[in-house]
Amino acid sequence: MLRAEKAEKAEKAGNAAEAAPEGGGGLSRRRLLGTAGAAGAAGLLVGGTAGAFGAEAVRKEPAPLAGVGSAAVPFHGEHQAGIVQPAQAHGHLAAFDLAPGADRRAAAALLRRWSATAAELMEGAAPRDDTSGVALDAGPCSLTVTFGFGRTFFDRTGLADRRPAALEPLPAFTADALDPRRSDGDLWVQIGADDALVAFHALRLLQKQAGDTARLRWQMNGFNRTPGAAAQPRTGRNLMGQIDGTNNPKPSDPDFAERIFVAGSGNDWMAGGSYAVVRRIRMLLDSWDHLSLERQERVIGRRKADGAPLSGGTETTPVDLNKVGPDGSLAIPGDAHVRVAAPASNRGAKMLRRAFSYHDGYREDGAPDAGLLFVAWQSDPMQGFVPVQRKLDRGDGLSRFLSHEASGLYAVPGGCAPGEYVGQRLLEG
């Protein structure tokens, strides 16, 4: 009898909360579902007290989102999000091919749907037609969604005459072992968020919305350090344990916009856009781990503990490529990664690296299938990525511990204004 009375009270409390208006002092539907879910989970643990606990939990207004959950990045603007923002803790990269028969009009409708969904999700809102509940009650968590076009997209939409010259295929490199099934693609999507469910939710919705218009070609998952995991903000580390990204161009650099974004105005559909080079680079971690710490540092050209160059100073001290040690040898070896990749060694070539680490289990030989989802941004890949990779391909000591297994180059249009969609100037111009 007592149990029945408690159940009746819980049901009345739940009905009252469900009837409460979404505005004013009532709970939003989003918060209500999350709170009720928490109460239900607790009920499984405490048995007969679930009813009383559930009624009390529904009455309380949840604490506001703070920190990671509340951080939001605007979808609309001159540039697409996901380029200059720090890489988030969780990332997904995916490429789609247009389905047979999908034309320019179908592609435009898809980009319109995708853009509207991305804008809502990046605000922390739930799209109207989404009933999945995957990220229910989560805030935006710094979510960014970025869209790009591969070379083949222009042929399949009848827009070959508007394909930019910078979208020429990347040259072959001797270290390449590329899998075509995990390379290229008509449409490219980059998703990042500081919460794994928020990132997955965005990926899942976009994949579902592709419908009969586009088919998934490949998809990769990545991660970085979670915000707050370190005592203070630091440059990230890769799976080799090395600090990675110290010499990245910074928005405060006088030539940053010129190096990273495409100039233009009016009907130039790439104005404000950028080019993304995407590479799946497997790290041969078993071989790397067999090196002594001293040898690892000489391969990279930096100290592992703090990222300082072997020429001296701290992490942010400019690398002195001319410095020699007491024995007369170069402080930074001739094949060290930082030397070979330095702008001074590549006629000033620069790119903005925004990578995710990945781990896809273990290979048949027991070695980890892990490494870097390398994403590099530049205004012209033939002036950014290509000359640097050519130099690395010929003389980088680190290349012996890497295998480039997938590759893609994508034209990423500029951002869009409210009421517009990404790529509209191309598809309706």
Automatic annotation (TrEMBL):
Query: What's the record's note on cofactor binding?
Result: Binds 1 heme b (iron(II)-protoporphyrin IX) group non-covalently per subunit.
Q: Which UniProt keywords apply?
A: Heme, Iron, Lyase, Metal-binding, Oxidoreductase, Peroxidase, Signal
Q: Does the keyword Iron apply?
A: yes
Record field: catalytic activity: heme b + 2 H(+) = protoporphyrin IX + Fe(2+)
EC number from the UniProt entry: 1.11.1.-
Segments of this protein annotated with the region Disordered: 1-26
Give the compositionally biased regions (Basic and acidic residues). 1-12
Indicate the segments forming the Dyp-type peroxidase N-terminal domain, all copies. Answer: 80-224
**What GO biological process terms are annotated to this protein in UniProt?**
iron import into cell
**UniProt domain Dyp-type peroxidase C-terminal: residue ranges:** 236-416
A single Gene Ontology CC annotation of this entry is: cell envelope
Gene Ontology molecular function terms on file: ferrochelatase activity; heme binding; metal ion binding; peroxidase activity
Query: Where is the protein localized?
Result: Cell envelope
Q: What class of enzyme is it?
A: oxidoreductase
What this protein is reported to do is described as:
Involved in the recovery of exogenous heme iron. Extracts iron from heme while preserving the protoporphyrin ring intact.
**Family as reported in the entry's similarity comment:** Belongs to the DyP-type peroxidase family.
Q: Extract the NCBIfam families matched here.
A: Dyp_perox_fam, tat_substr_1
Q: Please give the name of this protein.
A: Deferrochelatase
Native species of this protein?
A: Streptomyces mashuensis
Q: What is the lineage of its organism?
A: Bacteria, Bacillati, Actinomycetota, Actinomycetes, Kitasatosporales
